[in-house]
Amino acid sequence: MSSPRRVVRATPRFFEDLDRQLRPERGPNGEPSTNDFQVFELIRIVDRFAVEFDDLPRLIAERDDYRILVMSGTLLAGSP
């Protein structure tokens, strides 16, 4: 039996961090932009957290409200 789908939201702080780490436009060597990440990766990540949260490993052993997700993406070289 699967868990109910959770509501998952990215915080404003998440988007601030994303803006610091990625460019607003694609880089000269094809590096992804913030928009690329949001379109190609973020939706899949949010969906995985929403559907599989209870099955993901805990970030902090005593806390049920923090989980870790490691997955391949579509934007990085070498990703399947």
Describe the protein in words.
The protein is mainly alpha-helical and 80 residues long. The protein has one domain (7-80). The chain has 2 helices and no strands. The model has no long low-confidence stretch (mean pLDDT 89).
Report the structural category: mainly alpha
Alpha carbon gap, first and last residue:
29 Å
The average pLDDT value, as a whole number, equals 89
Q: How much helical structure, as a percent, in the residues?
A: 25-40%
Total number of domains: 1
Uncertain ranges: none
Strand content: under 5%
List the helices and strands and how they pair.
Layout: H1 12-21, H2 34-52
Briefly, what is this?
Helix content is 36%, strand content 0%. With 80 residues, it is mainly alpha-helical.
Keywords summarizing the entry:
single chain; about 80 residues; about 0% strand
